[in-house]
């Protein structure tokens, strides 16, 4: 391959790399838009759980923004058990993070090492995680002085 052919092939590779990186830059934006759509759909679901727990005098703290939802239940000793749904830092794919106080009083965070996009997300994934959070909260309540009641 002569020099001109070599540099022509280099130019073609650079052009393909530029097109590829432009497409890659669109991925976080697309994931962010999908995340915001999912959050909007899940806000009424979380509000429903909050209301149903309030009927049982259990305080559920809910915070939400355009791109995240946080759900937290508190124990009498000040500990907590909760979930946050938001976008993964690098690519803005949906990530569910569990946060809780362990028996030793230390706070822990667990992501489960799974992220979701439009290709593998179903709203039931978050509702299942929410139900597990509430079940875990009630299971461990006796170790934390009971449930913080309204």
Question: Your description of this structure?
Answer:
The chain is an alpha+beta fold. It has one domain. Helix content is about 45%, strand content about 25%. The chain has helices spanning about 5-55, 125-140; strands at about 60-65, 70-75, 80-85, 95-100, 105-110, 115. Strands 1, 2, 3, 4, 5 and 6 form a six-stranded antiparallel β-sheet that branches. A hairpin with a 5-residue loop joins strand 2 (about 70-75) and strand 3 (about 80-85). Helix 1 (about 5-55) packs across helix 2 (about 125-140). It is elongated. The N and C termini lie far apart (about 80 Å). The mean pLDDT is about 90.
Write the SSE topology.
Layout: H1 3-54, E1 60-65, E2 68-74, E3 80-87, E4 94-101, E5 107-110, E6 115-116, H2 123-140
Antiparallel strand pairs: 1-2, 2-3, 3-4, 4-5, 4-6
Helix pairs in contact: 1-2
Q: How many helix segments?
A: 2
Describe the sheet with the most strands.
Answer: 6 strands, antiparallel
Counting helices, strands and paired strands, the structural category is alpha+beta
Q: Tell me the span between the first and last alpha carbons.
A: 78 Å
Q: Percent helix among the residues?
A: 40-55%
- Count of domains: 1
Count the E strands: 6
Average residue-wise pLDDT: 90
Our estimate of the beta-strand percent is: 15-25%
Structural Rg:
22 Å
Oligomer: single chain
N-to-C SSE series? Answer: HEEEEEEH
Poorly predicted segments: none
């Amino acid at each position: 391959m002569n020099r001109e052919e070599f540099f022509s092939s280099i130019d073609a590779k650079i052009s393909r790399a530029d097109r590829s990186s432009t497409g890659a830059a669109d991925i976080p934006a697309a994931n962010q838009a999908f995340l915001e759509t999912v959050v909007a759909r899940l806000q009424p679901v979380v509000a429903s759980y909050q209301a149903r727990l309030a009927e049982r005098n259990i305080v559920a703290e809910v915070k939400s923004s355009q791109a995240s939802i946080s759900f937290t239940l508190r124990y009498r000793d000040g500990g907590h058990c909760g979930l946050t749904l938001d976008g993964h830092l690098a690519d803005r794919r949906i990530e569910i993070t569990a946060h809780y106080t362990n028996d030793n009083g230390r706070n822990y965070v667990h992501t489960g090492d799974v992220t979701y996009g439009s290709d593998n997300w179903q709203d039931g994934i978050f509702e299942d995680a929410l139900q597990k959070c509430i079940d875990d909260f009630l299971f461990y309540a006796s170790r934390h002085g009971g449930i913080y009641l309204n």
